[in-house]
Amino acid sequence: MICLLMHLFPIVPFRMQMWSLNTYLYGPKDDLKHRLLWREVYSAEEEAQLKALVCEAESRGLTFVYALSPGQDIVFSSSCDLTLLKRKLRQVSDLGCQAFALLFDDIDHSMCQSDTEAFSSFAHAQVTVANEIFRFLGEPPVFLFCPTEYCSSLCTPSVSKSPYLLTVGEDLLPGISVIWTGNKVISRELSPESLAEVQAVLRRPPLIWDNLHANDYDSRRVFLGPFKGRPPGLRAHLRGLLLNPNCEFEANFIPLHTLGSWYKEVKEEGKGDTGALASDEIPADPLMSQDLKAGENQVSRSFSHEKISRRGLCSGRVPLSEAQVQLLVGLYYLPHEHGPPAQNLLQDLTWLKANCHCVSVNGNGKKASPQKVEEWRDRAGRFLAACDDVALLHGAVVTSINRAVLYDLYPYIWDLRNTLLVAKAFICWLGCGASSGAELHGVEAEPWVFKGGLSGEVQMLLPVGTSSELFSHPPPLFPTSRLYNIRPFQQKDKVTQDAVISHPDFIGDRCLGASLALCPEYSLVLEDELGVCGCAVGILDVHSFAKRCQASWLPAMRDKYPSRPHGASGHTATKVLLYFHEEQDYPDSLLYHFPSQLRLEALPELVDCSVSRSLLTALLTALKANGSQGVFCEVQPTDGLRMEFLTKLGFLEILRGEARPREGVVLGRLL
Fold first, then answer.
1. For tag attachment on the chain, is the N or C end more exposed, with fewer CB atoms within 10 Å?
2. Which residue ranges does the record assign to the GH84 domain (predicted)?
3. Is 389 labeled as catalytic in the residue annotation?
């Protein structure tokens, strides 16, 4: 249970007791004996570690609150369960802990038969047990109770008329504090009026458990913005405030420092200082900038400057610049609102998608005005530049001197970098006039509705946005700062390669030639600082493509590469040349569900293989935008890595070589 010490700050809430920053509440979800196995006592080794944590908190002047969550399966009327509960808390008390919490949040309201016979209501059962435990522990000065109805949205029928809360307020002993999260589980704002109502029902000021910066409910979100939406005037209606922070310690610098600023204002207000600013009156950007810059400098000083080598180039690790830190926070601001950089990204992408007809092939039969086209391209340029800024930020985080920030925040910035790679490629593809004007499938909703934060909202604006398996993957074990770009194919991308056949075009003609000649709008290129490192080629409608190929492309290739050319000899040369002389078709049963085809290639030395996924996703986005309902690709049975890669992205085996003239496995997925 090393997690007891590791998670001193990341997992559990901080609290202000009696309006001083002095309390730490222990209730990590990865301590199984906190909730699931609450009846079990700690082993000798676990005891020693928990005692060390209690002593460490005491040495730092913190009140250590031990929380237990027995609500999932406790039988309130069982003397055995009550004895086990007392035994568990007595064990912790013997370790030096003098403050406790009983949590009955997020559980079913139903009771077993024996509890129904023993208690008049669910609230009556909880209050009875809480009161007995409170007395058993000697009525400690800090004893917290988290009700099942812990916010306004969970109260039935309302806060003031909830039988559950009325029972808690009437029967719970006055020395026990009641936890409350506000109007919602994650409350955007807390108002004195709403808390006054709760105080009246509970017959005591509530203790706020503030989830504003909690991110354990979404693995793609982190909240770096300030503590806000809680005016200092709340003090008269509160017994205290717990701040439930981000799971990642380094992400909490601004939340905790702005909480301190808020607390200072509360004290100033309590002294009658009428000149103190209310929380919402503080200019957000200067506050954010000052705290962020100070935080980056403060943390980075604890790391020495080291030299690192990447592709033979040495560079020093340096702190993030103030502009980069502000961009980082703006991208990961708060659960109910984005910072300006994120807002601009979403607004531009939404507008570009809605107005793509201005630069599409047919534009629904109407030609857009030059001014509208120019506006679209100007806004696209701004969006692409913003995507590039995020890519540069990703590289700066990787090479930052603050390695703790890197390891805490890298999964988030890496995820956003990859999602924006796809979005950028999509906008570039639209800018080439590749869209046929088909409907682009998006979902309109409030920004905080979808999981994933900014990455999730950008994802949902893409045609394949509902396919979560294309976007949600763990980051690589070894971060790299290399810059990548996905763009449409250009003629300059053609290179001469040696082949079995002594013709410089042969490999390109055999692998990609038909696609590049007949449907180049579905050809995307992946590049890094050194040049092209991958490509993805698609065919929107294989059936019509095959007809065009038979009519024009293959005859030209047969003239260019005769089956028995002069100077060519050997079985291998003859075999590869036959590629252009064989009939290549797919059964109608396949093309009915999977009308599109793709081919993906990447250099084996590609450092971050996740960008291959982004490349494939960008191509699927283009195909889906123009109406494709499914796509397939051919893979050699011996290519296990490619089979695994595609399977993780939702591809399934639909056709084997015996059903086709050529060897190979056909994998497909619906769009």
1. N
2. 1-267
3. no
Distance separating alpha carbons of residues 539 and 521, to the nearest angstrom: 9
pLDDT beyond 90 at 52 = yes
How far apart are alpha carbons 40 and 24 in whole angstroms? 23
Q: Which two tokens stand for residue 481?
A: 């700062």
For 265, phi and psi rounded to 5 degrees?
A: -65, -40
Determine how many CB atoms are found less than 10 A away from the CB of residue 235: 19
Residue 442 · residue 353 · CB < 8 Å = yes
> Would the pLDDT of 510 be above 90?
no
Rounded-to-integer distance, Cα 551 and Cα 555, Å: 7
CA-angle at 219, arms to 215 and 220, nearest 5°? 95
**DSSP-derived 3-state class of residue 307:** strand
Percent helix, strand, coil in the chain (nearest 5)? 45, 15, 40
pLDDT in tens, 418-462: 999 999 999 998 887 665 444 444 433 333 455 788 998 899 899
254, pLDDT greater than 80: yes
Assign 618 to helix, strand or coil.
helix
CA distance 546 to 401: 55
523-528, strands of its sheet edge to edge? 485-488, 523-528, 531-539, 596-602, 630-635, 665-670, 652-655
Q: What are phi and psi of 400, to 5 degrees?
A: -65, 150
Relative to beta strand 177-180, strand 142-146 is parallel
Lowest-confidence region among 106-110, 305-309, 339-343? 305-309
pLDDT value of position 620: 94
What average pLDDT score do residues 635-656 get?
88
Give the active site residue among 106, 115, 171, 218.
106
Give the model's confidence band at 287: pLDDT under 50 very low, under 70 low, under 90 confident, else very high: very low
- The answer, as to whether pTM is greater than 0.70, is yes
* Residue 79 CA: distances (Å) to CA of 25, 74, 83, 172, 643: 28, 11, 6, 20, 57
For residues 387 and 416, what is the distance between their CA atoms, to the nearest angstrom?
9
Q: CA–CA separation, 585 vs 588, rounded Å?
A: 9
Tell me the C-alpha distance between 177 and 571, whole Å.
85
Please tell me the distance from the alpha carbon of residue 459 to that of residue 480, in angstroms, as a whole number. 23
- Using DSSP, state whether 64 is helix, strand or coil: strand
- Of 524, 324, 355, which Cα lies nearest the Cα of 424? 524
281 pLDDT higher than 80: no
Give pLDDT, residue 603: 81
Q: What is the pLDDT of residue 472?
A: 84
pLDDT tens, 140-165? 999 999 999 999 999 999 999 999 99
Fill in the amino acid letter for 212. L
- Give alpha helix (H) positions in 122-210: 122-136, 163-171, 192-202
| Rounded CA separation 595/589 (Å) | 10
